[in-house]
């Protein structure tokens, strides 16, 4: 990654409309690095601020849109959340949890890696492009910087049996091909674009092979969430136990 030259930085600052007082200087520098790498010309204001990150739309020089998921580096709440998930994960055993920045960069890489595995297995997730320190850059789900709705936000008439089947289909690919369980699947972590569900927010997802003892329980919870949402919307659902039968969880 090239170093930012002083004289270039002043110019780059003009490219960003983002005025976000919560962004620290190191994160700001990281945004420049990512922008240089991907030829991003403009970053817009955050479209969301969740528990662990904010997501910003960004426009590349060719008109292509990106989503920048920028993880908070400093809040006590985020530190607690990351620790909760990373402690049990064998991939984190060598990470010093006292170093928040390192912990969060590892978390960003974890979500990136999970996205990559899911994308390569054919699950409909935003295509991951780049991870740099606390910034994950992925395909923007939506148009011209306007994000697509979450499943939660979809008008009732667009919540159909076809959409339900397609969500279950994605879970099947996730489990049977990618060998991954989402672990926070719900109407809040599925976006719907062009009538198709996109699975997002995969940082806490786990590998079935690494979590043998809890896999079934975690998967059942994910499917129950989906079933509850669609059932409430009066869509005919398949019983959770029947869905589980189609999934290969025994190792
Ligand atoms: N690739 C994307 N394209 C467009 N919008 C996105 C994309 N990824 C996430 N978003 C938007 O940003 C929001 C937050 O993303 P995500 O759920 O990954 O972060 P989070 O910090 O875990 O949020 P939360 O704590 O609310 O779950 C999503 O609800 C969605 O509105
Ligand atoms: Mg989320």
What small ligands are held by the chains?
adenosine-5'-triphosphate, magnesium ion
- The termini sit apart by 40 Å
Going by helix content, strand content and strand pairing, the class is: alpha+beta
- CATH homologous superfamily designation of the largest domain: Phosphorylase Kinase, domain 1
Overall geometry comes to: globular
Level-1 CATH class name of the largest domain:
Alpha Beta
Helix content: 25-40%
Given as residue ranges, the uncertain stretches (5+ residues, pLDDT < 50) are 1-10
Backbone CA Rg = 19 Å
Largest beta-sheet characterization? 6 strands, antiparallel
Which architecture name of the largest domain does CATH use? 2-Layer Sandwich
Summarize the structure.
This protein has 251 residues and is of the alpha+beta class.
